[in-house]
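I am going through a labmate's work and have reached the protein record below. What it holds is a sequence and that sequence's fold in token form. Please read both lines and tell me whether the tokens look consistent with the sequence. Do not assume that whoever made the record got everything right. Thanks in advance; the entry in question is below.
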Amino acid sequence: MKTKEEILEDTIGIINEMTSDWDIGFSGGINADTKLIEDLGFESIDVVQLVGAIEEHFQKSGLPFEEILIKDGNYVDEIRVSEIAEFLNRHLD
């Protein structure tokens, strides 16, 4: 089982790999406080691809991502890398 820190590092690595060839003008490196939409310019299709990449990386499908992507019946406006890592920490066994 991975530690919280390892899960966060893996999540950052997945996002870095996904965005490595994007021209987003974001500097400073991706960290726990990085916002997917505001900082990295994620669109809904990118979130779908990220979910797929995370499930493939951790060899776990069907994770209930709606817990962090939907609030009060609506898609959230923003999500931080730390929120994804905390979610994974709760659901990976």
